[in-house]
Please model this.
Amino acid sequence: MKAYTDNGPTVGLFSSFVPRELLFALGCVPVRVFPTATKPTLAEMYLPRNFCALTRNLLASFLEEERPRIQAVIFTDDDDSSRRLRDVWAEYVPVPIWGYLEVPRTNDSLAIRRFASLLADLSREIESHTGNKLTVGHLRSAIAVYNEQRHLLESLKASWLRGNLPTLLYRNLRRLALTEHPQRANEALQHQVNAMSASMPSEVQVNKATDAGTRLLLIAELATPTSVVRQIESTGARVVTEVSDLDELSVAQQVPEKGETLEDLLASLAEAHLTKPPAPRTRAIRRRLDYLAQLARDRGAHAVICAYSKFCDLPLAEYPLLQAEMERVGIPVLLLELEDEVLSGQHRTRIEAFLEMIRHK
Amino acid sequence: MNDPKDVRIRLLSWLLRSPLGLRLVQALLAGRPQKPHHHVSADFFLEMARAAYASRTRPVVWSNIFVPSELFWGLGIVPFFPETWAGLAASMGLSALGVSQAAALGYPVDLCTVHRSAAGLRVSRLFPRMDAVVATSHTCDLASQMLSNFAHAEGKPFFLLDVPQRENKEAVDYSTAQLQRLIEHWCETLGIVFDLDRLRHALHLSNKARTLALEVAMLREAQPAPLRGSGMRDQLGMLTAMFGHPSGIRYYQTLRDYTRQRITSSQPEQTLQRVRLYWMHLMPYFESELLSHLEDDLGGVVAWEEVSTIWWDELDERDPLRSLARKMVSLFFNGPIQRRAEMALRLIQRYHCQGAIHFSHWGCRQSAGALHVLRARLRQEGVPLLILDGDCIDPSNLQLGPLHTRLEAFIEMLL
Model:
């Protein structure tokens, strides 16, 4: 395994539906792409101004980079924005596309079978680029690496929820898991877990917000901008869950490693990715609202902040139903439509006013 | 939510739900000077309205426009397409109502006005009953998202057809299996009885209409162009609702005869014809000076519209579900932008167009998202593309002054 992974190409992903295990087993280092551009200006030459802000920022990030650390990317058909980004990317970004993975929007047996077959197609595409062959042994080992990562992240989440790990550190660790070589990331996560268990709760840096403060559920696409989290927690409120690719929308359950054949293992990966908590793209509104309401109850959330990218259709179109459902059970909701990572003065005021309103309820 | 003071809403709501009211509308429309094919389409939509609003004999299924209409007609289901009816409402000057009601529901203003307007019109009780909802996942994210919202709001079953992007055997297999499941789901939830022969008959009707529509397409190659492009703005509605219904045959037969008569009598609908153009995406559904300025003042001829294109092959009546699956997957809006671009180039050549215009409807990410790539591809073949930003539903979002100026400069450049 190590012989493959140390010098393998770094492959960028735009979706949480691409099983990283598959790429890792093929000798690649799969990393989730986060925007680095502060403004989407460069992308506006290629994408309309009223196009998903996150997508524009992602494109701008690559157009800005002189020497991208990523050698190739894999696209998915997550939504209209990602489909069009792929069209533009193929023409104007000097980072090759190594694969296009169609991800079913349903999760019945038909969809799982199809997804497993599409994963097999993707593996053949990657094989043609890396020259590495997908084997049962490599895929099983890769699944084990990511299962270990899931286990470590669950452990860190438990610490964070107990208030033993600051939110920003917890989020940084989650981001590291998505953006670094998985084995190196696991070492860092393990180190943090060890540090947590070696310290008494009073010795670790405890989140200032107590359980008595306002507890918030955040909803975003890729991740809530750090500036929003910082603003929230600076007022004494506490983030208790984040429904985004960074956290709750990633595959948290252990993927079975025991398959005898590649087909078995690919089917396990397909099922794990299609049955993870629902995102708006599944159009399974009832399931999604039930999931969010349950999560809000489990974490004792007092309010919800939706930190969506401006012009990002799917979550924005779902919003009125989400708002109605939450308010029906007495949980107020704030919608922020964000252009980039920077929080405007107006957004700051709205967050402050919202939290103030909740405190006085 | 419904504004009781709006007389138009109360009147329309009554007209649509009353058999007497619908007869009255039909009589009024029959007496109006219209083109012959418009009488057929008006009768067709009134029949749909009667079955959806005033009658309770057949189930009404709400759908996006890319679920093949043959499926509904072949199963004895009345389809209702909120997108199409939002366009119809815009042509009646009701878009402001739909959009404002959608805002009251909490829909952000940056979402496509077609779908926002539909959401607003639904709560204004301008739409009929709903027994179930179906949507395809391809082409437009928002259509299926909004339909699933509507189904949720009314507690009705929703079925998503997950349509692959690639067009290959596996994609067709997968789509066929889903269509099979959809029919089983409807048999269970709607109590319909699946009759294979009836479905085959719907495909037979569809194929006959398709042959006629292809004849219209051939006639429109003529120079001067026999028809006004602006008069074809309703074609997407026809293409996505009429096939599989006997009206489809009547409509395209009438349109074919009308087109042929315009050619043989040397009486093109548009007298001033200076530059032939290919129109991409939609047109404003409401009366607007945009198209009249292009056609009557500048002599721009919309020789063909992208959305009038029959994109699917003849349907195999022996294997109906597979044929319908192939029809969904092969849609030109589906998949990468190259599919649309290559179709545009073929049609531009076929209709001897000197340029193309893309009407970028506000909020439609799928159509406007890769225009830079599309423009570059057309330019490679020497075809200039003008991109007009506007709105096909909301007149207040169509800035005529700047659009006229851009049209004028474009036509001048082409001459």
About this structure: The domain at 2-131 of chain A is CATH 3.40.50.11890 (Rossmann fold). Residues 1-5, 202-210 of chain A have pLDDT under 50 and may be disordered. The longest helix of chain A spans residues 136-161.
